[in-house]
Amino acid sequence: MHYQSAANKVNPRGNSKPVTLWFEEAIDRYTKGNLKAARSLASRAFKKNPDDANVEFLYGLCAEKDGNSTAAIKHYQNAIAIGAESFVYKKQLADLYQRLASFASAEKIYLELKAEQPDNKKMLENMALNWAGMGKHLNSFLLYKEMYDLGILDKKNQPKMAAMLAQVKESELSESLEAALLTTLSFDNVCHILLSQPISRYLTKKFAGLTEFNQKAFESLVLDPLFNAALSRLVLVGVALEKITQKARELILCQALSGQTLSPVYTAFAANIARQAELKEYVLFVGDTEQQLLKQLEDLLAIQALKPAWSPVDSELILLCLSMYTRLSSLKCSDKFSAVVLEKWPNLLQSIVKSTIFDVEDEIALAAKVSSLTPIKDGVSSSVQGQYEESPYPRWASVNHHAPLTPRSFLKAQFPWIEAPESFTNSSIDVLVAGCGTGRQPVEMAMMLPGSRIFAIDLSRRSLAYAKRKAKEFGLKNIEFHHADILNLGELNKTFDLIVSTGVIHHMAEPNAGWAVLRDLLRDDGLLHLALYSAVAREEVRKQREFISKLKLEPSAENIRKYRQAMMDREPNNKLYKYHDFWTMSECRDLLFHVQEHQYTWLGIKQACDTLAMKFRGVQAPAKIMNRFSKQFADNDSKMDLTCWHAFELNNPAAFSGMYSFLCSKAQA
Ligand SMILES: C[S@@+](CC[C@H](N)C(=O)[O-])C[C@H]1O[C@@H](n2cnc3c(N)ncnc32)[C@H](O)[C@@H]1O
Q1: Domain total of the chain
Q2: In a domain, 186, yes or no
Q3: Residue 386 has pLDDT above 60, yes or no
Q4: Which terminus has fewer CB within 10 Å in the chain: N or C?
């Protein structure tokens, strides 16, 4: 019981035993919810000793429990005034200020507390949250790093540290952060997509001077720990960094082929480039000279691999070079690879071999075994399936660590404004993830809702296989994956408390038909979470799609590589480079080369809700968008008015570049 430390510390009359005893008893009552008894003990203690700070503290705790924050603040202040040095009183007051969003008042106290106890974990955690609330993301990020250095940063706080980094302003990204960036990159339980932007922006600044690519410049890259770590762990975004990576790759290839031996730092760097190429799904453009060299290498490898006692160790450098450009499983002698167990491959290549050979084989085998729930009859569904069989989207690696939640607290965390329906008060709910792709969403939900049943379906068997592999990797048992077309899910004879379908129905010939199917799968008080493309935000996507269609470019990997390269040369500042999607093959195909894309406006969503007898239940958007909206529309009812959201978007055309994300439910519910 942490309040006991207050009892032991503050004893103004030096008469410790009786004070501690009454306080312990009162705290015991308070903890059991018997505020009346706790107050009565406090008032008796007060009669004996009106200067007892613990009396004020206890009154404060009871007032806070009663929801009377003003009285609680007053009592805590009185307690502090009497027992001035009490860490516990001050922390309680600071935490209350923080919960009340009185961040500046909380900050002042936290700074004093930190000077007093620089390694108090609970206090530092709340201080970091307080800075996050104030929008001081850099302070919060660095505080987490301090906790990491002190050895008191829990795993559950690592994603919070990453989330802070994601919001640090570009102008604040300086050299002094480099160690903290490296630390964040080393975490396994954070979603690295979050880190792509800030770390790429920092590296772009750092290497801005690398216009002339001489040996010295090249070496500075090879020896840079952060660049190496970033290459191996996240998708680097931005034209400048992509060009640097391409150039470095070409130089490694040329050095390897020149007959010089590559020192271990260079081969390690090549392995990191190979990892980056894989993370980007080989979307990087390959020049003619490199293509010729690669062809020679592939031929040479094919000859070597024919030898009876061939081992990949004999062809390490060739394999390393090729893996910087292509998936090893796509090489013409790849049939020789799977017979060699992973441990027999050179160490440097093992991780890339696992993901580009063994995992791919597993996925192909798994894809064939995914259970079929419905036929795929619709023509557009078949074309869309074709796209995602070739390019499962997205090929994610890591997710944020998620602590288990009850359905009710899960709902509160995602959609704080929603009154939880009755079913969410149970310990378990039925969730449908419709169009789950490669499974990141159902995996995260299964972690957050371990007692619930997650039912995930998709058109693409290869995506489902990827998802199944990842769910197994995370040891999740509460997800089922099935192959099905949403349009035919009516045959399922099953209903759900929550249906999530993000980035899916806008790929149908008639998206509202898919929406209607999902509506019918909802229980009466069920909730439907949809995310749909915005026509306003995607104007530039439309422009590029029209251009691609005029050029009659088929969505082959080669065409995507060429188109991206030409686009980056032609328009080095195109706003689409801000999308993570531009930087990997499957995502870029999804962004620019999709077989079917429909875009909505908020007015279109309003109309669909009316036509489909659905009630709109609110927009999910980042805090900065919600705050901007509230400045334009102060009245709380406006948040449920889609004409207001439409007007807002016209003034803020990039607000929903991520997608419109919202909740709806059956109108009669
Ligand atoms: C852009 S991906 C989004 C994947 C996932 N929801 C996410 O947010 O990462 C679209 C997914 O929807 C699936 N999809 C599209 N139309 C579908 C349909 N009619 N039935 C089932 N899945 C569909 C595709 O196969 C693809 O995996």
Answers
A1: 5
A2: no
A3: yes
A4: N
330-348 pLDDT, tens digit per residue, is: 998 998 998 899 999 999 9
557 shares a domain with 505: no
Mutational pocket test of ligand 1: of 373, 374, 380, 458, the residue with most ligand atoms within 8 Å of the beta carbon = 458
> In the numeric block, which tokens belong to residue 518?
């999902």
- Rounded mean pLDDT, 527-531: 98
Report the distance separating Cα 448 and Cα 431, nearest Å.
Answer: 12
- C-beta of 504 in contact with ligand 1 (< 6 A): yes
What confidence tens digit (pLDDT) does each residue in 387-441 have? 999 989 888 888 887 889 999 999 999 999 999 999 999 999 999 999 999 999 9
What is 72-126 written as a DSSP string?
A: HHHHHHHHHHHSTT-HHHHHHHHHHHHHTT-HHHHHHHHHHHHHH-TT-HHHHHH
pLDDT of residue 22: 81
Spacing, Cα 586 to ligand 1 middle (Å) = 13
pLDDT single digits (tens) 596-619: 999 999 999 999 999 999 999 999
Q: Is the CB of 502 under 6 A from ligand 1?
A: yes
388: Cβ below 6 Å to ligand 1?
yes
Rg (CA), the chain: 29
Looking at every residue in the chain, the average pLDDT score rounds to 92
pLDDT above 90: percentage of residues in the chain: 81
**Cα end-to-end distance, the chain, whole Å:** 45
| Ligand 1 in reach of 294 Cβ (< 6 A) | no
Secondary structure (3-state) at 44: helix
Last residue of a domain, one of 567, 592, 617: 592
Cα 442 to ligand 1 centroid, rounded to whole Å: 13
Q: Residue 388 sits in a domain of what CATH number? A: 3.40.50.150
Residue 435's nearest CA partner among 452, 413, 455, 415 is 455
437 lines ligand 1 (CB under 6 A): yes
Q: How far is the CA of 187 from the centre of ligand 1 (A)?
A: 29
